[in-house]
Amino acid sequence: MVKLNKIYTRTGDDGTSGLSDGSRTSKASARMGAIGDVDEANSAIGVARVALGSGVVEEALARIQNDLFDLGADVATPLADDEAPGSALRIAPSQVERLEREIDALNGDLAPLNSFVLPAGEPAAAALHLARAIARRAERSAVAAAREDALNPLALTYLNRLSDYLFVASRWVNQAGAGDVLWVPGAQR
């Protein structure tokens, strides 16, 4: 269990941060950039939860926020060639599969798209769109980090599904309110 008695440790004053295995890395490394972007996505999801209030999407987002802490721990734990299964907290196939089921459930209620959707509509849907854009950045950062250090491929898959989930959830929320705001190509010429 995590226990934080002291918030500042001074160990990062030299521009490094500790990884789960005790090694240190630059705070400017691609790995730390990915961890930071995942944290930002998690924070944006928290804002969306507050905007939503209770309901099926808010409940899913609560699970997703916990998954993102798992994902951050996964990215912060270097992969070892001889890693024993279950020895490190890693994103599991079941977490990706749950996101896919939740996407399918929400998407089943939606009309097919015939245009791109603008990030607007209901305030909660707009918050979900913002979280989606940040999750996509987190995915790009994780892909960049994976070029430098081996990462769990399921962490990358999870981030890809997460942006899909947030997009579908924003449409689902808008369907119950203002409706999708569609892009009209060239409308402002």
Report on this model:
This protein has 189 residues and is mainly alpha-helical. It has one domain: Cobalamin adenosyltransferase-like (Hypothetical Protein Ta1238, Chain: A, Up-down Bundle). Helices cover 57% and strands 5% of the residues. It contains five helices and four strands; from the N terminus they run ββαααβααβ. The protein has helices spanning 30-52, 56-75, 93-107, 123-148, 153-175; strands at 16-18, 24-26, 117-118, 181-182. Strands 1-2 form a two-stranded antiparallel sheet. It is elongated, with a radius of gyration of 18 Å. 33% of the residues are buried. The mean pLDDT is 92.
Provide the fold topology.
Layout: E1 16-18, E2 24-26, H1 30-52, H2 56-75, H3 93-107, E3 117-118, H4 123-148, H5 153-175, E4 181-182
Antiparallel strand pairs: 1-2, 3-4
